[in-house]
Structures are given as C-alpha cells and as structure tokens.
Q: What sequence folds into this?
C-alpha cells in the first residue's frame, strides 16, 4: 500500500504549531489547517505565561513565523476540514478554504482598509473586551499578516476595496475546496472558555466589573484593547482591590463541569502577581478550594506571591456577589473555612477563573474523523495510560487541550504535540519502508 | 509602608549615593551559565543597580587577563569575570583555566596599585538569577566605596595598539 | 530596536535610543519596531538589508538565547551571512531589571547598543562546517520513560542503546502495585514495554551498566559504559536522559519514621500490600506533603481560633526549624494516596481510612477519582502543614496521631494501625555526576533543567541531549510516556537528517606568529590542536570554540572566529566611551 509521506494537523494553537514543526523537521510534508484567520490560538491571547513570566506572544511568535516560513508546512488558515475518508497511511481529506475576500498574495497587511471600515463589532480575540472592524487583523502579530472581511457584519459598502492600494480586496472571492492525501492526522483544536451566565449569584453578564480571566488577560496584554492598562469596565478606574474566584464552573456538579480544569489556580497566581506589579498598593485576593499549584516551579512561585507580593489567599468559595448600583463596586459574601466565619469583602473588580471546555464544534469534527469523544466533547485516548495521544482510529492522534484537562499547561501541550508527531512519524515511516 | 513607597525610597537612596560617583562595572559572562543566570534575573524581574555592562563569550576560559587590564585602563571601576561552577564547565575545564589566570592577574594588579576588590571572579550557574543580581549590587556598593579607578591614564599603551 | 510591546518600551525610551544609534559611526539605518520578531519586523529587516546595502545588522531587543537563530535566518534570507548579525540585550539585562529607573535604563540601553555596534564593526562572515550525525541513540534509564523512548526511536528505524544501572528493567513503575486512575496492575503497562524493548532487534539493552564517560558533541557523542569489570565504547548521535527519580524517605525520627514500626511511605505500603504483609487494619491514616512544599510561609487570621490553639500555632511556627525535604509540590502524591486508600477500602471495607491533606491536588478528570474515594467513605481532613501531626506509640502496636482539623476547628486524635507518609519524588545524588558528564545543568529544584520550561520542555541546552520522564520533575505515568515520545520525536529529527551544520566558532591559528610551544595542544580538552612541523594545526571538527587556547597563547597567534580579541576589546572600549 502506498503510504503518503504527509500529515494533516487540525488546529494551529501552540500544540498544533509544535506538532507541525516536529513533523516538518522530520521531513514530512504537513498541512496545518486553522479555522480562524490567524494561527496562534489561546497562547497568543495571553499576556504572560507562568511561572517564568515570559511575554506569551514573544515566545510564541518565533514558532509562528517558523511555521509560516517552513518549506515543509502548508499553512491553510481560515479553512475547515469537511470530510475524511481512508485509513492510516492513506487518508483523503476535503478541506474548504473559506473566502477572506482579500487575496493573500496581494495583501501587504498595511491596514488602510480597517481604518476606513465603518463597522465596529466586538473582537473575539479580545474575548469581547475590545472592538474590531468588519475587515480586520485579529491581533498585531497575526500570521499570516493578511486582512479578512467578516462578511456577516460587512455592509458591502466597498470602501475597503476602493482604498486598498495593493488591490487585494476581492468581494467576489469564492470558497476553495482542496483534496489532501495524508498519512496521518493530528487533532489540536484546543478549548473554549466557559462563560458562567448560569451562575446567577455571581452576576456575570449583569455586573460590569465581573469578568473572566481570559478577559483580564486581554486587558493585561500590551497589544490588547487598553494597551496593557487595567481599567475597570464600568468607569475606567484602575482597580485598587481585586478578587479572583477559583473553580467557577469547574469541579462543579451543578453548573459547568465536574472536572478540574488544571490550569486555573496557576494562572490566578500569575495574574494576581501581575496585578500587584501593575499597582503595588492594591489588595489582591484569591478565593480557592484547593490551591492546585503543582508543576515545575509552581509551588515556589505561589509562595513568592504570598511572601513577596502580598497576595492574600482565602480558602473559600464565595456564595454570592452583590453589586452597588451607584459605584458598581462588588461585595462578596463567603465563609472563611479556616476561621469558620461568614463575612463579606468589598472589591473593585472580580475575576472569575472559569472552566476550560471543549470547542463548540469538537463533537462535529470528531464525527467527521470517526473518533470518540467523552460526555463533555473532549477526545478520548484509546488507552489513557499506555497510549495517551492515540485515538480509536489508527493514524489519528490528538494533542493539547482537545484531549481534555489532562493537559496541565503549555509544556504539556508541547510534549503531547511531540508525542503526537512521533506517533504519526512511526506510522508513516514504518509503512513506507 | 506601602510597597510603592518602599521601592521609591530604595531608588531614592540609590540615586543619592550616585550623585558623588557612579561606578562602571564590566561583567564578563559565559554563554552557558552566567549569561543565562543574568537572563534569569531578568525573567524573574529581580532588580539591581544599572551600573553593570555585560560582555558575553562562549567560556570564562576565553577571558585573556589583557581584557581585564584593558578595561581598567579604559576607565572601568570594577571588573567581574563570571563562569560556570567548577566541574560544570560546558567545555570541561575552561573555568579552571580562568581561575588560574585570575590568580596571576590579581598579583599583577597588586603591583599596579589596583585595589583588590576592584576585580572579582564569581561562579554563576544558569539557575542562579538571584545570585547574579546580588553580585552586581554588592560589587557596585563595594566599588563605590573605593572611589573611581586611578588606573585611568594613557601612560600604559593599549595592547590593542601593540597587536597589529 | 524593539519595543517588545511595553516590555522594553514601557521602561526604556526607545525613540531616544533610536536617535542615539543614528549618531554612531557606520550606522546608516535605524528603526524602532513594536515586535521585531513579528512577520512585519522580520520583513523590515530583510527589506532594509536590500534597500540600504547593509552589511551588518543589529537588533536591540530580548536575549539572543531566544531569538538569535530567528534573526540570523532572516539575515541569511536577505543574502547576508548570519555571522554579520549582532544582538543587544536590552530586555532581560536592562528594562526588566531596572523597571523603576527609566532614565538609567535608557542610558544603559544606549551603552549596550553602542557596545553592540562596536563589536559588529569587527564581525566577519563565517562558513559553517557540516558534521555527520550518527543514526544511533543512547537512552539512559530503563524505566517507563526510557523504554518508551527506546521503542519509539526503534520503530522509526534508529538503533538504540539502552543503559540501565539496575539488573532489571522497569524502574519505579515495577514497584507499584496498581496505577491510578484505572486501578490496573502496573505490570499491564510495564511488562509489554519491557517485552517490546528486549525483543526489538534495533534496541541493544545493557543492564547493570552505568555511564562512565561522555565526550563529543551532537551527532557524534563518544560514550563509555561500565558493565561489571568491562568498559564498552559506543558512538551515538543523540542521547535521551531518562534516569528517573527517587522516592524521598524522611530522615529517621521525622514523623517517627524509622522509629515506630507502623510508619511507612506510600511506596513501602505498595510493596507490603504486594507481599501480603498487611493485616486487616482498623484505621489507616495518611499524611500528605511530607518532605515536600517545605519553605512555605502561610499566615492565618488568628482572631477567631481558640486561644490555646492560636498559642500553640504561634509557638509551633516560631519554633519550627528548617524543614527537611524539598520545596516543590510533587504533583502525584495526592492521587497516589487516594489510590492506595481506595485499594485498602476495597480489600477491607470496614477499615477507616483518613487522609490529612493541605491542598488536595486531584487535577484534570482525576476529580472523579476523588469523588470515588469519598463515596467509599475515605475521610479527607485538612490539616495545617506548619503543625506536623504528633505521632506517639499506643498499646497493641497501634499509633496515636494528633492533628488539627481546620474544617472542624478542633484538634483530633486518631488511633491507627498504620500511618502512611506521602513523600515526593526527588532527584538522586547520582544526578550530580550525570549532570557533569552530560553538561546538563541542574535546576534550582535539583532536577535536570530543560532548555526552556514552557516551549522546550524535553530539550537540553546542549544540542543532541533530550530529557524524558521524572528526570526533570515529578510526573505520573501517562505524562512520562508523553514526554518520552516527545523526546524521541526531537531526537529522531536530528538523526533523520544525517548531517548537521555546526557553529563556525572555531580556532584559527596564524602560523606566521605560532612558535610551536604546544600550550594549545596541552590545554585543549577536545584534542583539536596538534603540533606538526613546529606549528599548531587545528582539526575544526573537534574544536568546540571555548577559546581557552586563544587566551593562553603567548604569541596571540590564535583567533577565535566570531569571538576574536578585537571584537571583545572593541566592546570593552565602547563601554567606557
């Protein structure tokens, strides 16, 4: 049987990017399919990564560029997988390149089109905290640096087309169907952030100054909607007191998900330290049940957060948040389990560390691939201990958070990506000899 | 005292110290250990005085004593040679060689009338960010007490002029 | 000149430094970038090389240890030899360490740029020699990680030499009874791996063997193994370090370990259960975080606690001497304890099992495992780590344990048959020797240090050496297997390409000046210099570029390519200017 010496990677976050690089460097032609206009995924949305406090996009950008320039990687952004047939060593995949209405080979990424576009919509990349135009680049370091027209919100005024000096805008562009033949497939579609509208006692969506941690990351990020300045949504004031609430929608059998999302305690400590760095005289509290700061250097980082930065840790899961209708300040009501007293705390800003959940289309993609998902929508390994990245279909492997909260953080995604690449290499190499 | 006050007052004290004399410290670092340690001080955001400038070589064993003499002749108030801990040199024993040379350099400096504390040898591993920051701080303070380097003069011809 | 968002731009006045750079001799083009490593920044570099005929490029931004390869490759694409590129570190070594002194940081940035320009003037184009890469790998350690790495490499056609110091393969996994959360026998995982390894014709296994010496470099490591009285020499292209970790045993007397018979570690409990040495207990108490998370300082609101307890708490905390053990969290102990608790409950449903914990770290979907234990009536009691439970002897070989239950708010006494201490995985003392031999540094936690904790978790700083499993930190079995496969993937990339370009940082002898004294031959740790016909000759393939010879040559006859005296002295001079 002819074995295709090529692979498909679905999803271009850090896991997909690393898997593609490991495959491409191995001499295997890799198609990297990403449904959004740019590669980078969740890691590009973060400000800093724990516990090294590296600027996230700074350490990610070189890998993104490497993907873009690699002779063995074919980057297919704004594209989706529609059909998969065949078996290990010889899969036939139908991919649709959605129309950006901008020609990638002509666009120079200057942004004149966006400057003139009259439409403003919430920016998904900023988790709704910022706005973008209908013709947009999701973030400044986007790869490829090609603008995209969001036709759903486009007014069809044609201004972008008329001002584009490179004549790159093509409002008649059609979707393109590609048929790829690959030997193995890596699924790396990542996660979505749970938005706790249903936990009404926390007022998310109602109270202006209650946000998710991802929204906070966008505010913290230098290339985010506020240029890295933490401003309260209600009045733009810099918050003097901030409370982080852990396990919102995680470890929860009523709302959200019963599992532990594995990352939230760590990023809460990181964000708390960042808040203290931004404003050393602020009061920062972390309300936790179990402080899950395991992993390399993590416990030590949490100790520093307490000792050096003065972050306050309270073992409690607040029952209710109330908003002062005038000041928009928030009051948390909670039981401190150590002192066993019920008390309240007034803060300027509340950050909910919510669960990480499967992508909304993960089940649909799994059906296309013929692989199993668990009751939440995460991929199920064929043997969770012995073959942790393999799926039920030989030749199809997974890596990153689409495998579920077994992925602890970025190094875990990177290692899983390496393992996934190794598995696909084994299949391709073993059969092509 | 709020943290902002504490930081500002430390900075003010530092600034006051500098009004009289701001030492210039040259630090030779090796690519594998001490340069990485200096980087770690950065990623850990450990603050230290801005008096140091870093020159990177592949190994502390690369440091010809002439570099140190040249630095002092050009006006450096203090010089630190840093490298991997003994036994950990990426090139097996480069740092041992550095240590041996340093020993003779110190004797030569004594002859030239250069104070002993102006030149130092220190071992910094890639994981010792804090040690690096403390080293720079300590050296800056010590050299400040010694005052400006008196060797600054053109009576000694530059060795780079001697060499073609 | 990079702003790096606000990382540099928020402290250093980048436009001011850009203006300053314009005044430096030989500088014909300057520009500020928001993120030089972005596609826009890189295009800008390429374009300006072509447009302005640049023959030297300097990027003032972060540390060269991250982005130098990227910028070098960008210069090459524009036709400029990559050794004509220089970086000025104004982030890790400037803006990040002087964040409260923007003026001084800006002045320092100017100085750093000045030094970089001075060096760049003396840079020369270099050619990189190509070396052959052997397609054999060595795996150090025959535990679950080492075996996985070996099999993954062998399946791709590479030859593997697997070295294990014990007489049998299997590592710690072999000593475990059951594995969480599936509660399957550990033999179900490790035995097939051992079988696959020993029957694979591409894998050569050496048991009861240790590493005696390692020399060479990526693609060409020369390894000496010691097996019994024999020394064996091997040539390998890559090395995977999978030497594992030890289970920490508390010092004698700590928690009465080694003093009272009923106090054991979790691993000892597993072995006792396997040998059938455990009689039906009435009560088993497990204590988490023994010997780990040392160095924590937690303060408490004392106002609402009972007076006597508050007093006791204070005196304990003040009186506590430096705790023995390790500062990190070992990640797997919570799950491991729950696994053994469930096992005991399944064997003896009437037994009481209590777990004293500080933070219960049953992450991922292991939350269900925690619920299973609670459903079996395992009791979880949150104690305070700073107040170690007191353990005393009780009649009938039982043990009395006193601990503060924070949730009930009282001190509780437990009469137990067994006290099981959950201790961390820790580095072995032998790691120090391995670290030296392989030139892989140990991190602050004592485990081997990876090249970058986030993006290069299985690479070492030295090319060609990779880490798998618990050698670089505590992991459970699936995590170890994943890291081993990833390490194998990285190693296979190197060996598949069979040739590698190495850095051009080699020694160049000026034979006109050389007097054949032989000092360079004597000093070179790699044997790269040989005196022939009264002059020193260099074998470029052996030279690693340390520069020791150049620094000691009495005639200054040796120039180090890319780290010449002239380049270094130019930086020294520029510092003072």
A:
């Amino acid at each position: 049987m002819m074995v295709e010496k090529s692979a498909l990677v679905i999803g271009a976050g850090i896991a997909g990017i690393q898997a593609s690089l490991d495959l491409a460097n191995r001499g295997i032609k890799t198609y990297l399919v990403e449904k959004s206009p740019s590669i980078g995924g969740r890691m590009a949305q973060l400000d800093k990564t724990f516990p090294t406090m590296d600027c996230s996009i700074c350490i990610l950008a070189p890998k993104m560029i490497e993907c873009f320039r690699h002779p063995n990687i074919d980057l297919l952004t704004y594209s989706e997988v529609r059909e998969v047939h065949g078996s290990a060593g010889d899969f036939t995949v139908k991919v649709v390149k959605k129309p950006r209405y901008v020609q990638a080979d002509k666009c120079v990424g200057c942004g004149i089109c966006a400057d003139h576009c009259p439409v403003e919509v919430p920016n998904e990349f900023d988790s709704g905290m910022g706005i973008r135009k209908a013709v947009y680049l999701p973030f400044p370091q986007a790869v490829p640096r090609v603008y995209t027209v969001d036709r759903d919100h486009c007014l069809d005024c044609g201004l972008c087309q008329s001002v584009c000096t490179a004549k790159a805008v093509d409002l008649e562009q059609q979707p393109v169907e590609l048929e790829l033949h690959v030997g193995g497939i890596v699924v790396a579609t990542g996660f979505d952030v749970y938005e706790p509208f249903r936990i009404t006692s926390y007022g998310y969506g109602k109270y202006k100054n209650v946000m998710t941690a991802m929204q906070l990351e966008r505010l913290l990020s230098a290339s985010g909607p506020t240029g890295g300045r933490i401003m309260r949504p209600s009045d733009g004031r810099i918050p003097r007191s901030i409370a982080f609430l852990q396990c919102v929608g995680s470890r929860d059998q009523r709302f959200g998900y019963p599992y532990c999302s594995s990352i939230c305690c760590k990023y809460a400590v990181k964000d708390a330290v960042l808040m203290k760095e931004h404003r050393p005289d602020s009061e920062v509290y972390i309300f936790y049940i179990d402080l899950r700061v395991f992993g390399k250097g993590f416990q030590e980082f949490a100790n520093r957060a307490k000792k050096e930065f003065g972050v306050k840790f309270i073992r409690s899961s607040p029952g209710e948040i109330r908003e002062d209708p005038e000041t928009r300040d928030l009051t948390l009501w909670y039981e401190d389990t150590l002192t066993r007293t019920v008390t309240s705390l007034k803060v300027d800003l509340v950050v909910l560390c919510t669960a990480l959940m499967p992508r909304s289309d993960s089940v649909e993609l799994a059906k296309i691939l013929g692989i199993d998902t668990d009751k939440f929508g995460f991929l199920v390994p064929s043997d969770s201990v012995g073959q942790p990245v393999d799926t039920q279909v030989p030749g199809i492997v997974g890596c990153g958070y689409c495998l579920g909260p077994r992925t602890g953080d970025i190094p875990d995604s990177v290692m899983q990506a390496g393992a996934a690449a190794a598995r696909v290499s084994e299949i391709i190499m073993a059969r092509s000899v | 005292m709020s943290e902002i006050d504490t930081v500002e007052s430390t900075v003010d004290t530092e600034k006051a110290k500098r009004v009289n004399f701001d030492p210039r410290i040259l630090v030779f670092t090796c690519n594998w250990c001490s340069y990485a340690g200096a980087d770690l001080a950065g990623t850990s955001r450990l603050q230290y005085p801005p008096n140091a400038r870093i020159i990177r070589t592949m190994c502390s064993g690369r440091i010809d004593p002439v570099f140190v003499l040249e630095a002092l002749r050009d006006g450096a108030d203090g010089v630190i040679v840093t490298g991997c801990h003994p036994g950990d040199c990426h090139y097996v024993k480069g740092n041992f060689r550095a240590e041996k040379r340093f020993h003779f350099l110190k004797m030569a400096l004594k002859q030239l009338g250069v104070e002993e504390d102006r030149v130092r040898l220190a071992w910094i591993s890639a994981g010792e960010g804090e040690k690096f920051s403390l080293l720079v701080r300590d050296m800056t303070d010590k050299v400040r007490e010694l005052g400006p380097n008196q060797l600054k003069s053109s009576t000694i011809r530059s060795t780079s002029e001697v060499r073609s | 000149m990079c702003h790096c968002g606000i990382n540099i731009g928020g402290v250093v006045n980048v436009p001011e430094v850009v203006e300053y750079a314009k005044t430096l001799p030989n500088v014909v083009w300057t520009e500020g970038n928001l993120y030089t490593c972005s596609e826009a920044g890189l295009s800008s570099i390429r374009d300006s090389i072509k447009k302005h005929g640049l023959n030297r490029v300097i990027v003032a931004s972060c540390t060269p240890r991250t982005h130098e390869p990227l910028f070098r490759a960008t210069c090459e694409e524009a036709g400029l030899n990559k050794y004509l590129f220089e970086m000025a570190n104004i982030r890790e070594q400037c803006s990040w360490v002087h964040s409260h002194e923007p003026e001084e940081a800006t002045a320092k940035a100017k100085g750093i740029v000045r030094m970089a320009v001075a060096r760049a003037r003396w840079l020369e184009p270099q050619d990189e020699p190509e070396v052959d890469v052997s397609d054999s790998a060595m795996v150090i350690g025959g535990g679950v990680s080492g075996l996985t790495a070996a099999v993954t490499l062998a399946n791709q056609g590479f030859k593997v030499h697997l070295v294990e110091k014990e007489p049998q393969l299997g590592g710690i996994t072999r000593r475990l009874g059951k594995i969480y959360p599936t509660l399957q026998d550990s033999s179900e995982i490790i035995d097939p791996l051992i079988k696959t390894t020993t029957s694979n014709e591409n894998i050569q296994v050496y048991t009861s063997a240790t590493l005696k010496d390692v020399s060479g470099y990526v693609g060409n490591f020369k390894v000496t193994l010691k097996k019994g009285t024999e020394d064996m020499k091997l040539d390998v292209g890559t090395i995977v370090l999978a030497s594992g970790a030890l289970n920490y045993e508390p010092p004698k007397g700590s928690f009465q370990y080694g003093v009272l018979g009923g106090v054991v570690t979790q691993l000892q409990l597993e072995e006792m259960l396997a040998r059938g040495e455990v009689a039906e207990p009435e009560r088993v108490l497990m204590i988490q975080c023994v010997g780990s998370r040392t160095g924590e300082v937690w303060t408490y609101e004392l106002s609402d606690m009972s007076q006597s307890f508050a007093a006791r708490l204070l005196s304990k905390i003040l009186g506590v001497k430096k705790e023995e053990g390790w500062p990190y969290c070992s990640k797997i102990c919570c799950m491991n304890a729950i696994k053994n608790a469930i096992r005991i409950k399944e064997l003896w449903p009437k037994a009481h099992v209590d777990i004293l914990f500080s933070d219960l770290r049953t992450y991922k979907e292991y939350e269900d495992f925690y619920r299973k234990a609670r459903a079996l009536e395992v009791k979880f009691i949150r104690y305070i780590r700073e107040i170690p439970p007191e353990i005393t002897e009780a009649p009938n070989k039982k043990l009395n344990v006193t601990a503060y239950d924070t949730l009930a708010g009282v001190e509780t006494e437990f009469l137990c048959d067994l006290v099981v201490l959950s201790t961390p995985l820790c580095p072995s003392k032998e790691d120090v020797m391995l670290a030296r031999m392989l030139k892989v540094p140990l991190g602050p936690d004592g485990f081997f240090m990876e090249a970058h904790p986030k993006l290069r978790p299985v690479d070492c700083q030295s090319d060609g050496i990779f880490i798998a499993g618990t050698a670089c930190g505590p992991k459970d079995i699936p995590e170890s297997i994943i890291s081993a496969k990833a390490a194998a993937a990285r190693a296979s990339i190197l060996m598949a390409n069979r040739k590698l370009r190495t850095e051009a940082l080699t020694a160049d002898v000026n034979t006109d000046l050389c007097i054949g004294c032989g000092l360079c031959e004597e000093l070179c740790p790699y044997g790269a210099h040989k005196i022939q016909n009264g002059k020193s000759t260099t074998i470029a393939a052996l030279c690693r570029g340390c520069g020791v010879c150049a620094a000691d040559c009495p005639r200054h006859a040796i120039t180090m390519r890319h780290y010449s005296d002239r380049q270094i002295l130019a930086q020294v001079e520029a510092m003072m200017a």
